Amino acid sequence: MARSLFDPASLGALRLPNRIIMSSMSRDRSPGGVPTALNASYYAQRATAGLVVTESTAISPRGVGWPNTPGIYTETQIAGWRVVTDAVHRAGGCIFSQLWHCGRNSHPLTQPGGVLPVGPSAILPPGTIRTAEGRKPLLVPHELSADEIAGIVEEYRAAARNALVAGFDGVQVHAGNGFLLDQFLRDSANRRTDAYGGSAQNRCRLLVEVVAAVCEIWSPQRVGVRFSPANPTNYHLRDSDPARLLATALEMLSELRVAYVDVVEGSTTTEPATHELDYPVLRRSFTGPYVANNGFSSRAQAERALASHADLISFGRLFIANPDLPRRLKIGARMNPLNQDELYSLDHRGYTDYPFLDHNNDQNNAIPAPQEEHP
Fold first, then answer.
1. Residue 136: which domain range?
2. Which run of H or of E encompasses 201?
3. Tens digits of per-residue pLDDT, 149-202?
4. How far apart are CA 30 and CA 90, in angstroms?
5. For residue range 101-146, what is the model confidence (pLDDT) as tens digits?
6. How many CA atoms lie within 13 A of 136 on its CB side?
7. What is the CATH number of the domain that holds 312?
8. For residue 95, what is the enclosing H or E element?
9. Residue 372: pLDDT over 50
10. Lower CB density within 10 Å: C or N end of the chain?
């Protein structure tokens, strides 16, 4: 029998009420890196997702990429996240923290002490990055030494412990969209000749070390991992053989028995995907639940992916404009338009001000079925 978005789902240690995941999406509304009551309202509004994944959350001061993004490395930040997790739990939801290090996608104006951002190799990335003084060109990063890489692993371990204290239900390790772990994975950014570079297995080494460290704090069955193997991102990151890379990473993560993988299928930018990948085939390299992510805009489209290869579906921008997205999908309701102009404002506009459906009249909420034309 065909699976529905509204069938319950097992995801590692969790039993979810539906197969809808709210994707991690940067919203840049945490001044000074500290989550606030406004963030708590935003996530609680969307708690009817089977699982909510937070916006990318920096594991350390050097992991920060640009202003107003949250972190999880200070007591104040942990306390702020506790307000968020309490609000989501009161609303009946489940929430994971996405652990994030921007790597070379930062600037000395954002880095502590004005130092260079870090990366796997000293290669100049194209593009610009937002800073407190406006957009600035990206710079050649400081190439991490083996000892410094070990320190990065410890930062992930500490952030995972902080997420536990903050009341999260689990964590997602961000290894996609051009950030530090993705920079190590893809050969356009990783030209190392040591144990962290060269073969696909070596380029996956840091990811595996990070996930293993996180799994020492959390049960592997409460740990997910995000990938985006063919996404050019805003930083023009590419790999010469993303199918082999993804299959290798999925096989290695299967051995760690993590709860799930979340794969961004294709491009999230105006640029086309770097490669056309056969995701139903690649999905077979992972033994656990597979979350398909990117561009899902309807129940029918999502359920085709469930029938093909996915176990759950991650919705992104549709969830921004529709806090009650699961209900809208279930009854076939109209969707709110996205307020593009206020995506990254610092206040409630385009954040917590999107309307909910009229709970008293599903008939009026639903889109009328098309009328048959008669000759």
1. 9-355
2. helix 200-203
3. 999 999 999 999 999 999 999 999 999 999 999 999 999 999 999 999 999 999
4. 22
5. 999 999 999 999 999 999 999 999 999 999 999 999 999 999 999 9
6. 16
7. 3.20.20.70
8. strand 95-100
9. no
10. C
